[in-house]
Design goal:
Number of strands: 19
Shape: elongated
Structural class: alpha+beta
Radius of gyration: 30 Å
Mean pLDDT: 89
Helix content: 40-55%
Number of helices: 23
Length: about 725
């Protein structure tokens, strides 16, 4: 293999302008045999059953905002909300408008993510081959393609999952200015940094290699580049700047408050998260699974059969990769620090004073060797990790996507440099060293491929178990939800049923509501943590979807409906969905007292339902909805209940909760409930209720309707009785 390194000289002008004709380019690509296995492995890992990747809250919100432009004429000026609470800029939404313009199916957005991350692997190959040779390029591409941690962030509709593609494009441009001394790299580089920041705040770290590139290649920068860069940044941020203006710079204030809310801490958590990207195994492919260990599911392909015996070798490979990265960093630093350029005849006349200034001499030599400057750019990209050692916010693994695939590039360059060293100084050993390098790359690639393929197979077969102590409510995938809704819609059309009712959780709410817009049958959703909605008894049969583990819903179905189980639909890493056709049993018309609007009390008492294997109970009240609501994007209709144990004003004897619903009908019945300890169940309660609507803040700019993900509430409407009181007293059975 060719391992020639970049020459320490500027590219002659005649070579800069030389272009290969299309036939030569195609012929060169076709005879590059290593691209075929790289492309196959990359595409397989990133696209195979991509519909089983995580499709949860963030993913659904981002795609929903992109799709709303075509379905509702709403132009988003923000993206989703970040972990710090601020709203993200809308660049990722605009990118996903490409598949959203073609189809309302989020599957194509997932395919787009997989393709763009596959392109990132190929760009890694072309970038490294251009500047560091064929062996380094093949090594970097294979290590990046098979890295299981990189795979996790290559299959889901997450803004930060698009970072690697734009990061590599940025490095291409920086090397164009620093190594090749070409002009015209500044403006697109600034644009890419702006895009990276909009995808995730960690993209701002790429300012470090950019600043160094400006120092090294300042002679290539024109005044017009600076002016155009400012204009490009303003254009890219214009929609978001408008949002900040109308919101009185709310996100700026929020970020400043977050930075001051904690005194900050210094630890090695950043290094540990960075190190995990070298691992050949993960606990699961769930992007929200922050538990780092060998897979623990009893049916995992990694815990049974022959792959079980690879646990120790893969662990040793992980430690070896960490050591190899340290060697790569050390070698790169040495190549930067040690002068490599021979003095030219005209430089021998340098003054004695200047020769004694070693630092100036070193800088002169460094500035005359672009290849060392390129290594500095790569090192600064990875060493930027040190800025996260002290942090005042909670760090998450996805903050470190920005460093991909730099660590694999440095390892690949180190291996190539070792071969080059022996070629120059020990040519008698170069053949053995070269084949040793090939074997090392093959072993690392096979180890990573075992881990990534095993994790992918486990995900598809539902043989994975996320974090045993999860901070996230649960795993949700696109395939399961789409299969469920398609089956429910087809059943409704076949039986002429006009309504589908679905309880949702924090994880499934936005995915189900977003996908339900494409169904022919109207869908009502409700927050199963606090309420349950049933159809009007006079409305005929309806389809109801639950899951086998939802105890409170299943108990209420037994109590109030005649339900027939139709089927169960598998839900990855969750209890199966259950599909019912049911009718609500008639209720005796209630007698007053009750509220005069929105909610009508159906039972003049509250009742409790025991929670299995627990010392807690659900405290339930039964109502009828008096108004119908129309489904709108990212909009919920809410009831807020405040319940006080009768006869006491103790704070621990009162509680409140909110039930969120969509597309409800007048006459539907709603059960509102909250979990309480058995010791705190009172003999009677006083109930206060209010209603309000939550929807995205929108603004009008000429003919445009601008929308955001800033969810605002309408004023709460306090519900009153006919006697003018704002509460009802109910006994508890």
């Amino acid at each position: 293999m060719d391992t020639n390194l970049v020459q320490d000289r500027e590219v002659p002008p005649q070579q800069r302008d030389r272009k290969l004709v299309p036939g030569e380019k195609l012929r060169t690509l076709l005879v590059t045999w290593e691209l075929y296995p790289i492309l196959f492995i990359t595409a397989f890992l990133r696209l195979y059953r991509i519909d089983t990747a995580v499709y949860g809250y963030d993913e659904a919100v981002v795609y929903r905002l992109a799709r709303d432009l075509f379905t509702h004429g709403l132009l988003p000026i923000t993206s989703n909300r970040a972990s710090l609470g601020n709203l993200n800029p809308p660049m990722v939404v605009y990118l996903f408008m490409i598949p959203a313009a073609i189809s309302g199916n989020p599957f194509w957005a997932e395919v787009m993510v997989g393709l763009l991350n596959s392109a990132a692997v190929l760009l890694t190959y072309f970038f490294i081959r251009r500047y560091y040779g064929r062996l380094a390029a093949t090594t970097a591409a294979l290590l990046y393609a098979t890295a299981v941690k990189a795979l996790i962030y290559s299959r889901t509709i997450w803004p930060q999952n698009l970072l690697p593609l734009f990061t590599i494009l940025l490095m291409f441009l920086l090397f164009r200015g620093v190594i090749e001394r070409r002009k015209g790299w500044v403006v697109p580089s600034v644009a890419l940094i702006a895009i990276l920041y909009q995808l995730h705040g960690s993209g701002l770290l790429m300012v470090i290699p950019f600043a160094l590139a400006v120092v090294f290649a300042y002679k290539t920068i024109r005044w017009s580049d600076i002016l155009l860069s400012v204009i490009v940044v303003l254009l890219l941020f214009a929609p978001f700047l408008y949002w900040e203006y109308v919101s009185h710079w709310s996100d700026v204030h929020l970020l400043m408050a977050a930075s001051k809310s904690s005194p900050g801490q210094t630890d090695t958590q950043a290094i540990e998260y960075y190190r995990q990207f070298l691992s050949p195994y993960v606990h699961s492919l769930d992007v929200y699974d922050h538990y780092f260990s060998w897979p623990t599911h009893p049916d995992s392909i990694m815990t049974r059969g022959i792959l079980h015996y690879f646990k120790l070798p893969l662990f040793l490979e992980f430690e070896g990769m960490w050591l190899l990265l340290h060697c790569s960093l050390f070698a790169a630093v040495m190549l930067v620090l040690i002068p490599q350029r021979k003095a030219q005849p005209e430089e021998e006349s340098i003054s004695t004073v200047r020769q004694k200034n070693r630092l100036l001499s070193w800088w002169t030599d460094l500035y005359a060797t672009p290849s060392r400057q390129g290594l500095i750019l790569l090192l600064s990209w990875q060493v930027a990790l040190l800025t996260l050692l002290r942090h005042s916010i909670t760090l998450f693994p996805h903050y470190f996507i920005i460093f991909l695939p730099g660590q694999f590039m440095l390892i690949a360059i180190f291996i190539s440099k070792v071969v080059e060293f022996f070629r120059s100084y020990r040519p008698d050993c170069v053949k053995a060293v070269r084949y040793g390098a090939y074997m090392l790359v093959i072993l690392i690639t096979m180890a990573q491929l075992i881990g990534s393929t095993g994790s992918l197979i486990d995900t598809v077969n539902d043989h994975f178990k996320p974090d045993p102590d999860p901070w996230w409510p649960g795993y949700n995938d696109l395939s399961s939800v789409q299969k469920l809704l398609t089956q429910a819609d087809q059943l409704a059309q076949a039986r002429h049923i006009h309504r589908i009712y679905i309880p949702v959780t924090y994880t499934t709410a936005d995915p189900i509501r977003e996908l339900a817009e494409g169904m022919k049958t109207p869908v009502t959703t409700f927050d199963t943590h606090y309420c349950m909605v049933l159809p009007d008894p006079t409305a005929g049969p309806a389809i109801f979807i639950s899951d086998t583990a939802n105890a409170v819903v299943n108990r209420l179905l037994e109590r109030y409906t005649n339900a027939t189980l139709i089927s169960q639909v598998k839900h990855l890493d969750n209890p199966s969905f259950t599909l019912y056709v049911l009718t609500t049993r008639p209720q005796v018309s209630p007698a007053p007292p009750s509220f005069t609007s929105d909610l009508q009390l159906l039972e003049q008492r509250a009742f409790t339902i025991p929670i299995p294997a627990s010392k807690q109970q659900w405290l339930v009240t039964h109502w009828r909805l008096m108004n119908s609501t129309t489904p709108m994007p990212l909009t919920t209709n809410n009831f807020h209940l405040q319940i006080q144990s009768e006869g006491t004003n103790k704070s621990d004897d009162s509680f409140n909760f909110t039930c969120a619903t969509t597309a409800s009908r007048a006459g539907d019945q709603i059960m509102l409930y909250q979990v309480r300890d058995q010791s705190k169940i009172p003999t009677s309660i006083s109930v206060q209720a209010s209603s309000y609507t939550s929807s995205p803040a929108s603004y009008f700019l000429g003919p445009l309707t601008l929308t955001t993900f800033n969810i605002v509430d309408t004023p709460h409407k306090m519900l009153m009785t006919a006697q003018g009181e704002n509460s009802l007293t109910l006994p508890v059975a």
